[in-house]
Write a structure and sequence with these properties.
Radius of gyration: 18 Å
Number of strands: 8
CATH topology: TIM Barrel
Structural class: alpha/beta
CATH class: Alpha Beta
Helix content: 25-40%
Strand order of the largest sheet: 1-2-3-4-5-6-7-8
């Protein structure tokens, strides 16, 4: 596994569990608003700080057995890692619950993880409504090899919604990229989801600094969006 490090303790990444969060390097998307730009490119792994290798991570986990309850695997995009299945199996063997964060670009991997009962919670990012999805994710719609990406994302949504595994969907709300109507389209698409989160956009460290020109002076009312789409979900939250 190509790891970008791990956070030893988190009280918020894994609902209702004391957990550690491990970050994988490399992503299939290039969302301009990504707040973990150092984890997008795989070449980052060449300069990893000491103590953030896979060996060190599992040494840490063994020392936390009986103290921590879960592991949140995030990125980057964990499902593009060729050894993600074995990585999760090693975590489960130590007795930890596993939460997977994914962008849904690899439904084949998501399906295998679900079928083999390797995860206990899944969180998937919904980047935008279908018509604007690829552009929002930083994918060139002119690339024939990538045009099928939306179909893969939709398949992952269906797999997760029918998995019987606790899950949530979430969208980072970016002024200048999203508008209120987008969230009505998203709500119709994933209607019936038990938990949907609207995440506030933080303009600090992002993948594409030029995005600041597009977001400058623009705002979206998250409370208004929440009220407009609540009827489609079990729960809509803002964080």
């Amino acid at each position: 596994m190509i790891l970008g490090g791990f956070q030893k303790l988190t009280l918020i990444d894994y609902p209702k569990k004391l957990a550690t969060t491990v970050f994988t390097v490399g992503c299939s998307f290039r969302c301009p608003f990504c707040h973990n730009p150092e984890l997008v490119e795989t070449h980052y792994s060449a300069s990893l700080p000491k103590g953030q290798t896979e060996k060190e991570f599992f040494k840490f986990l063994k020392n936390r057995q009986g103290k921590l309850q879960g592991v949140c695997i995030t990125g980057g995009e964990p499902t593009i890692q060729p050894d993600i299945i074995n990585f999760i199996k090693k975590i489960k063997k130590l007795g930890f619950s596993v939460k997977l964060d994914t962008n849904g670009s690899r439904p084949d991997v998501v399906k295998k993880i679900i079928d083999e009962k390797l995860v206990d919670y899944i969180a998937m990012d919904i980047k935008n409504q279908p018509k604007k999805y690829l552009k929002t994710a930083g994918i060139s719609v002119g690339n024939a090899n990538l045009r099928s990406m939306l179909d893969r994302v939709k398949l992952s949504v269906d797999l997760i919604m029918n998995s019987q595994i606790p899950y949530e969907f979430r969208t980072t709300v970016v002024p200048g990229i999203h508008n209120e109507k987008d969230f009505l389209e998203i709500a119709k698409w994933i209607s019936g989801v038990p938990k949907y989160w609207l995440q506030k956009y933080e303009e600090t460290k992002i993948l594409d600094p030029k995005l600041k020109n597009k977001t400058k002076g623009k705002k979206l009312d998250l409370e208004k969006i929440k009220k407009n789409i609540e009827r489609y979900f079990g729960k809509v939250g803002i964080r």
